[in-house]
Design brief:
The complex is a heterodimer of chains A (about 270) and B (about 270). Chain A has about 270 residues and is an all-alpha fold. Helix content of chain A is about 75%, strand content about 5%. Chain B starts with a helix and ends with a helix. At the A-B interface, helix 1, helix 3, helix 4, helix 5 and helix 6 of A face helix 2, helix 3, helix 4, helix 6 and helix 7 of B.
């Protein structure tokens, strides 16, 4: 905030003083320049003829896609069950791996502050940086297509997310309770089970349901790279341009995602 | 603790997490039945998995010897395109998200506007990026434009929702003070609301840039531009050393972005 005085001696309020105005202006200039550079890159790679007739194409595709082919639903139940399994079992499997990593990464429980903690943090970052579709691509290439590849992909992707939130929860625990358990002569494991675990249990449950919800969303598309679930059906339908089937699959995915979000919100509401 | 449990000769037992025994046992038994059903229906070809272990080992070994040089032009172009798409779509996403975020905040928007904006947010959040990308590639053709539009659309759902929640949490008295000076609606938003949400908006925008970059790495799988196409080809040809190089670059960029965003957010608060 600054008060400026004009030559007539009138005081005018301005939000920023001159120095702030200049930095602000320069930041906007740099930002705009970066955006224009990026936009130019995109524009150069784009066939603008396709852009201008896009509305026609959109109308054309939606007229082909409507109405959805309702009786196709009979061949969707099994892929849906697979999708649910990929998400649920993937979450369970990721927790099995994420809990030890979280304990190794939390400042107050890690056995070694330098090497082991940084190693755990590296695992967390790597797992988080790589999208589950890339994990799926990798696993399909290694262990072959199918539900199992999707399940492992989801679990590897979830480790980073769960372990990060969990180790932050562990770092925020009340040390007094841990001290009290230690004072009874408890061993290291007993301290973990009776001193730390009860304190992070609500966080753990919340994280699990939250991640499960995300995993349902992600497992619906894993099939695109051959990792099982309803995405496989979508890929098949897209390949033969069966738009009425595609629209039904999209509808089913939308409903599944909304249900999982509702369940997750309810469960988290019940925990907190 | 009741007297009985304090009596001599009885040991203390940890109270169960779910206190209602009927609910507890229903949950446990339900989970067991589901687990058995799920494990039975998951069809694992163990011999194929066993064969794959060899390739898995090769892939892990590839990390110690990543091959940056053979496909460097492809990697370089793909990476640049991913970054360009991420930056451009974050900017476009922010520009669209601000009006929608304002519209989705119950304390400043009238009910019809509120419902429309919430609808847009829900739609954007429910559709996975890759599905949106497939549809947009079908409509706009191959290339980064489809990816740019996909990421912009995905940004709206994320940013508008958090922005709207933040606007709903703002301090009413500040906004009221501005209104009392006889300000117009725009001045009211600009001087009463905007300063309160600005730090969080900047933090969220940088965080979203980070997410958009990660997502841009997969859009190439469906032809929407970026590094994904190169990565897919590398896996298809079992060129694990090139794939490892790409993954290492992705992780490095994400780490840089994440540290920058933590640093900037720390400075703002």
């Amino acid at each position: 905030m600054a008060i400026k005085q004009t030559t007539d001696g009138i005081k005018i309020w301005a939000r920023r003083n001159t120095k702030e105005q200049i930095t602000n202006w320069i930041m906007w200039l740099v930002g705009t320049a970066i955006f224009m550079y990026c936009w130019q890159g995109i524009s150069a790679e784009t066939d603008w003829d396709f852009f201008w007739d896009a509305p026609e194409i959109a109308v054309d595709i939606s007229s082909r896609a409507m109405p959805p082919k309702w009786d196709y639903i009979t061949s969707l139940w099994v892929p849906l069950w697979d999708t649910l399994n990929i998400a649920t079992m993937g979450t369970v499997l990721s927790l099995v791996m994420a809990i030890p990593i979280a304990f190794l990464a939390a400042r107050n429980t890690t056995p070694d502050k330098y090497i082991i903690r940084n190693l755990a943090l590296l695992i967390i970052v790597s797992s988080r940086s790589i999208n589950s579709l890339i994990w799926a691509l990798l696993l399909v290439s290694i262990i072959g297509p199918g539900v199992f590849a999707g399940l492992v992909a989801i679990s590897l992707r979830s480790i980073g997310f769960c372990a990060k939130l969990l180790y932050e929860a562990i770092e925020e625990i009340d040390e007094k309770q841990v001290e009290a358990i230690t004072a009874t002569g408890a061993s290291r494991w007993q301290v973990m089970v009776f001193g730390i675990l009860p304190q992070i249990m609500p966080a753990l449950a919340g994280i699990t349901v939250f991640r499960w919800d995300i995993n349902i969303r992600e497992s619906t598309v894993l099939g695109l790279v051959g990792a099982g679930g309803i995405g496989l059906q979508m890929q098949g339908s897209l390949n033969v341009l069966a738009w009425p089937q595609v629209s039904l699959i999209l509808l089913v995915i939308l409903i599944a995602v909304l249900i999982s979000e509702w369940v997750s919100a309810k469960v988290r509401g019940a925990i907190i | 603790m009741s007297e009985a449990s304090l009596a001599l000769g009885r040991t203390w037992k940890r109270p169960p997490i779910i206190s209602n025994p009927i609910l507890r046992w229903t949950l446990i038994i339900g989970a067991l039945i589901y687990l058995i059903a799920a494990v039975m229906t998951i069809d694992v070809n163990w011999s194929r998995v066993y064969e794959g272990l060899e390739r898995g080992k090769k892939f892990i070994l590839a990390f110690s010897n990543p091959n940056f040089s053979d496909r460097w032009t492809d990697i370089h172009e793909g990476m640049l395109e991913s970054i360009v798409m991420a930056v451009a779509s974050t900017v476009a996403g922010i520009i669209i998200s601000i009006p929608i975020g304002l519209g989705a905040a119950r304390n400043i928007a009238p009910l019809p506007v509120y419902l429309i904006c919430r609808g847009i947010i829900a739609l954007s959040r429910a559709l996975h990026e890759i599905i949106v990308a497939i549809l947009l590639v079908a409509i706009f053709g191959f290339g980064p434009l489809a990816g740019f539009l996909t990421l912009s659309f995905a940004t709206i759902g994320f940013l508008s929702k958090l922005l709207a929640e933040d606007i709903e949490d703002t301090d009413k008295s500040q906004a009221e003070a501005i209104k009392a000076t006889g300000s117009s609606w725009l001045q009211w938003i600009n001087f009463g609301i905007q300063p309160q949400i600005m730090p969080r908006l900047i933090g969220l925008s940088i965080y979203r840039l980070d997410i958009n970059f990660r997502e841009s790495a997969i859009l190439g799988l469906v032809g929407a531009g970026g590094i994904g196409a190169t990565l897919n080809t590398a896996f298809d040809r079992y060129e694990f050393d090139t794939a490892a190089a790409i993954i290492i670059i992705i992780i490095a960029i994400v780490m840089v972005l994440e540290n920058t965003s933590t640093f900037i957010r720390g400075k703002l608060q």
